[in-house]
Design a protein that fits this description.
This protein is an alpha+beta fold and 140 residues long. Helix content is 44%, strand content 15%. The chain is built from four helices and four strands; from the N terminus they run ααβββαβα. Strands 1-2-3-4 form a four-stranded mixed β-sheet, with helices on both faces. Strand 3, helix 3 and strand 4 form a beta-alpha-beta unit. Helix 2 crosses helix 4. The longest helix is centred in the C-terminal third of the chain and has 24 residues. The chain binds zinc ion.
Amino acid sequence: VVTIPSTEGVSVRMARQKTRDTACELVIRRCLHRSGFRYFTHRRPVQALRREADIVFPRLKVAVFVDGCFWHGCPVHGTWPKANSDWWRAKIEANRLRDSDTDRRLSEMGWRVVRIWEHEDPEQAALRIAAVVRNRRRSG
Ligand SMILES: [Zn+2]
């Protein structure tokens, strides 16, 4: 649970947006499922690593993260709220550092990480994920 300081309109609305099972994520999952892919959702790719991915293909070691534009500091929609800007900046920067740390650790353990921005076209994103998974199948 995150305590949000101040009550500045836009930022607070964005911060309160859902971070799991977002519309984008659900469409991606539906597309993948329809194409015959089976996967786990909201699961740690590696038990010992306390990071949860949104879509996980354990055998093929593919982990998908659907990142919210606000919390993960999207270059297109990431905004720095004016009120309590230091607090927000620290928060979002910490998330970004954590994301790249997650990517690094997982790839060191042989995982392929796919990051999707919540603003991306979910059908295109699903195609991208499908391509990665098929590629891993071939090379596995
Ligand atoms: Zn965005």
